[in-house]
Design goal:
The protein is an alpha+beta fold. It is 31% helix and 28% strand. Strands 14-16-17-12-11-15 form a 6-stranded mixed beta sheet, with no helix packed on it. A hairpin with a 4-residue loop joins strand 5 and strand 6. Helix 1 crosses helix 11, helix 2 packs parallel to helix 7 and helix 5 packs across helix 6.
């Protein structure tokens, strides 16, 4: 009995001492470069009328085509992508919102709202994303942050957190004012994140919807402003925008055979034609390959001063890389690792970089992280590690 108690106490002590302490993460892997020129074997992209445009592979974020994509421009109602992100990450869809007189009187495209009317956050979100209701944006902004201005501060913070560093908003709906701007690249980046939110994805792919209002006494009919949903095979989002300053804009998404592309056209003479030719070119010439899976070690490195001598490394996310269709079986994989790392190592700590390569160029890079923690070596840990087989043997014999 005494030996059994001793074994349990000793085993608990082993577990406590073997927990690796937290240490700062290493720098992140370099961002994947865009295709600065049309890759070998891919036809030149079509010309588009848009003042700025971009085409990206959704899963990886790799840029397949860009035209003045980093130049700040008025984004019009594509602003509402970030409005929706902040709403969906801040409050529940069932929360009740009372429309203020200020919100009801917001100019521009609108939902059918009246001062004092009560709707849910979810109902307002459908009107914001399908009908592009400016008044709905202000109503939900006031509900969440007290004022539209305070809500816009939340939008700017979230956009910066997501990497949209050339974006700045002055309102929640996109009416053009001074210092309200974004870029084609930033809007694609923000749309990629928004499309990972199931509610957002469901709404923006919906062509039309009927919202029962006031207990079913009447209904609000909503038709998506994105005509691409009716005209392009696989279209499943995202948001239109139109002002005199911005011109006609469209952030679009389409999925075919499990592949998704995101495009942005700003100040376009024909936003649907521009978008269609970019998406067709992308689907016809590019694919994506999974080179490694998260949690599955690709390599290991020696640990100096650790309770274990080696630690396995795996990609921090499933490692996909976009490339020309002809090259899907020709991608190389290069690993850049330190020869030795010093303990302690925490699980998930960045220890190296994996690169997908094609024609001696880097297509995409991801971090390699430790699959398990490795604490520093101490005499106590070494003793307890050596004692573990004895404890297991005693337990197998049923001692205690």
């Amino acid at each position: 009995m005494a030996v059994g108690r001793f074994s349990r106490v000793l085993l608990a002590t082993v577990l406590v001492l073997c927990i690796a302490p937290t240490v700062p993460a290493a720098p992140l892997a370099p961002a994947a470069p865009e295709f600065s020129a049309t890759p070998r074997g891919v036809p030149d992209p079509p010309s588009v009328s848009a003042g700025a445009a971009i085409l990206v592979e959704w899963r990886t974020g790799q840029v397949l085509y860009a035209k003045d994509a980093y130049q700040p421009r008025a984004p019009a109602s594509t602003t509402k992508i970030v409005t929706a992100i902040v709403v969906l990450e801040s409050v529940g869809l069932a929360e009740k919102v009372t429309v203020s007189r200020n919100a009801a009187g917001t100019p521009g495209s609108a939902m059918d709202l009246a001062s004092g009317q009560e709707l849910t956050v979810g109902e307002l979100l459908w009107g914001i994303l399908l009908r592009s209701g400016n008044n709905g944006c202000v109503a939900v902004a006031e509900h969440i942050a007290g004022t539209e201005g305070a809500f816009v501060e939340m939008m700017n913070r979230r956009a910066a957190q997501l990497g949209a560093w050339r974006t700045h908003f002055r309102n929640a709906h996109g009416i053009s004012v001074r210092n309200h701007y974004s870029t084609a690249f930033d809007l694609a980046l923000l749309a990629r994140h928004a499309l990972t939110i199931p509610t957002f994805e469901t709404i923006v792919r919906t062509r039309q919807a009927t919202l029962p209002m006031e207990g079913g006494k009447w209904a609000m009919q909503l038709r998506n402003t994105n005509n691409l949903l009716w005209t392009f095979a696989g279209a499943d989002g995202v948001k239109t925008g139109t002002t005199s300053a911005a011109g006609k804009c469209l952030v679009a998404s389409a999925t075919r055979d499990g592949r998704r592309l995101v495009s942005v056209v700003l100040n376009s003479a024909d936003r649907y034609q521009d978008t269609a030719v970019l998406l067709e070119w992308g689907f016809g010439n590019f694919g994506a390959v999974c080179l490694a899976r998260t949690g599955r070690p690709l390599a290991s490195v020696r640990v100096k001063g650790g309770a274990e001598g080696w630690v396995g490394l795996a990609p921090e996310e499933d490692f996909w890389a976009a490339c020309p269709l002809w090259a899907t079986h020709s991608l190389g994989l290069d690993l850049h690792l330190a020869q030795v790392v010093r303990a302690p190592i925490r699980r998930g700590q960045v220890v190296g970089v994996a690169e997908a390569t094609l024609d001696d160029g880097v297509v995409r890079a991801v971090n390699l992280v430790a699959v398990e923690g490795v604490p520093s070596w101490t005499p106590e840990r070494a003793f307890l590690k050596a004692l573990l087989p004895v404890i297991r043997l005693l337990a197998r014999w049923g001692v205690g």
